[in-house]
Amino acid sequence: MASKVLVVDDSAFMRNLLKQLLEGEHEVVGEAENGVEAVELYRELDPDVVTMDVVMPIRNGIEATSEIKSLDSGASVIMCTSVGQEEKMREAVEAGADGYITKPFQKPNVLQAIADVIQAEA
Amino acid sequence: MNLDVRSLRTFSRLAHSGAEKAAGSLTTLAGIDTYVNVTKVELGTKSDVETEFAERDLVSVHIGFNGGLDGRTVLAFSPESAERLVDALMPGIDATDADGELAASSLKEVANIMLGGFIDGWADYLDTSVDITTPTYVEDDDSGPLKEIEASGFEHGGTDEHVLVFRNQLEAADNAIEFDLYMVPTPDSIGTIVEASGEDDALPVESFAAFSEMVNDGANQASADITSMTGIDTTVEVSRLSFVPIEGVPMSLTDAVRRGVVLEFSGTPSGYIAILFDEPSAENIASSLLPGMEGDEAMRQSAIQEIGNIVTSGFLDGWANALETTIDISPPKHVHDLGSAIIDPLATDLAQSQEYAFLIDSTIRTDDDEFTCDIYALPDETELRKALEQLSPAA
Amino acid sequence: MQVYTTDTSSPQSGRTKVGIADYAVSSDQSTLTTSGLGSCIGVALYDPDTCVSGLAHAMLPEIEPGGEPAKFADSSIELLLSEMEAAGANIDRVVAKIAGGSTMFDFTSANGDGSIGDRNVETTRETLARFGIEIVAEDIGGSHGRSLELDAQTGDLRVRSAKTGNSVL
Lengths: 122, 395, 169
Fold this sequence. Notes:
The complex is a heterotrimer of chains A (about 120), B (about 400) and C (about 170).
Chain A: E1 4-8, H1 12-22, E2 27-32, H2 35-45, E3 49-52, H3 61-71, E4 77-81, H4 86-95, E5 99-102, H5 107-121
Parallel strand pairs in A: 1-2, 1-3, 3-4, 4-5
Chain B: E1 2-3, H1 5-30, E2 34-45, H2 46-55, E3 59-67, E4 71-77, H3 79-89, H4 101-126, E5 130-132, E6 136-139, H5 145-151, E7 162-172, E8 177-185, H6 187-197, E9 203-204, H7 205-230, E10 234-245, H8 248-251, E11 257-267, E12 271-278, H9 279-289, H10 297-322, E13 327-329, E14 333-338, H11 339-351, E15 356-366, E16 372-379, H12 381-391
Antiparallel strand pairs in B: 1-9, 2-7, 2-10, 3-4, 3-5, 3-6, 4-8, 7-8, 10-15, 11-12, 11-13, 11-14, 12-16, 15-16
Chain C: E1 15-17, E2 22-26, E3 31-37, E4 41-46, E5 53-58, H1 73-86, E6 95-100, H2 116-130, E7 134-140, E8 146-150, E9 157-161, E10 165-168
Parallel strand pairs in C: 1-3, 6-7
Antiparallel strand pairs in C: 2-5, 3-8, 4-5, 4-6, 8-9, 9-10
Organism (chain B): Haloferax mucosum ATCC BAA-1512
Protein name (chain B): Chemotaxis protein CheC, inhibitor of MCP methylation
GO molecular function (chain B): hydrolase activity
């Protein structure tokens, strides 16, 4: 089943790549370039899943994730980042992230991660 | 064997003044201005050194030294640089010298004079005498410089054994001739020099070895990430940790225009990282990431920034995990400027608090030369030292 | 025993390369070059009567105790002037052209005193003013790198930039 996805990444290239990758599988309902925009768009669009970059200007993805989770404890957030440090992953879990994908990612992994969080929610 | 920052400084100074003397010899001998660009003390394993020689097609002259200090010096040229130098030494000679014997003998003589001058300073510092052997000319050699050393009685353990290499980048005649002067002392001789500089809070060489292992792992991860993103096979050509006077960091690059990203990292250690491509490489990598989107410059810039991001993470995550800490990485800043000028502000910022730097530089290349990616990481010296302490076997 | 050594320090051709934290004087009309100025400052000094010229490439503004003089703008200018004087230049005639001092990145570590590039320019101006040397041309600041070539015959300072192309000061 197609889900509504909010893509959060400061890189236009990455947002584009994710959109291409999700095409035909899920619907990308919005794109945010930083953590502040991500929270605003989350309120506005109420997506099923958020893919969240970690290193972003203005507000990073970990902070944005905790804020989204405090707004909506049922939100599904998948960290989608090049940072593969174990300590950072722990921080993401503490912030409430539901999944963690490291870049460069492959299509099956992204689709699987989305399927898993949707399943968990259902 | 223990090593500390003060002895590294002593090494660096000795090597630099020796190289300046060697450059002066060539200036006089060949009538072409020769400069020492950078003197690096490289901390790597024996296999790192072998790999570097094997990857580059080099013409070299080897001279051993023994007595108060034992080891080997190597003067290494690209074939083009060797040809230009021979031409400067003996204009018009190569046409009549079919088997290259005269060319070889002139390069041997150059090496003899340059390397002799290089070694003198070390002997004086240690208040000892050092003899040098007769030069050996090596062309198209794939056995590496250390084989030679072993043949001359230089005892080394396995390929993982740690070695110190003093590497001086020299150039002559307005960059037309570029070459490297290497000095590889035996481990015992390094011990001799460390003792002479008399430092007692030295770190065991194993912690440098452990760190340079992390640098290698980081470079391999970065290479795998680039391959996974672009679908093009890449290999790590060089990856090394060296100790350099801070002003030597930008001088390791030319002022050719480069494109890429600069990022700041903070934690233990903090510092700067630059991921740079030459212009054709930047074009090729952007095209492979964005097939069919040649016109969209903003998207191409974004793609280069993202690859910088991913390469940086590939490079630094292993450090953070091994040191059980986190390293925060800033968003990538896109750069498109003279190579040395890109690195200059990074080195200058650190120059406010340190005179020498640990420089990590790696080169990742595709097999067909479609693109080359250079990574330069510049950690804060004091913080890196703390990190190295953590890696000490005793800690 | 008398030891005969060859003086291996004098340049042979018409160009001398100035490194970073380095300076050089030309009294035989040879060209002085330096590359890769980012936040660093390049100071070109020239005596039009004798054609004695000098070029310094400094990293940081003011020298600190124990610092290497060629690394800092103030001390490298002093050194350059005294060597130029020794080579026959008259300080009263010497004029300056300066280039570099850009701010390429805004690092988090930058303190409130402004960027290193800005501080390099400021210290260079102060030091030159202290010796009564007029700055006749400059290409400073911005966010790009520069490479320099000082023609000791004419005093022309050629500036190469990846962003703004080539220019002559």
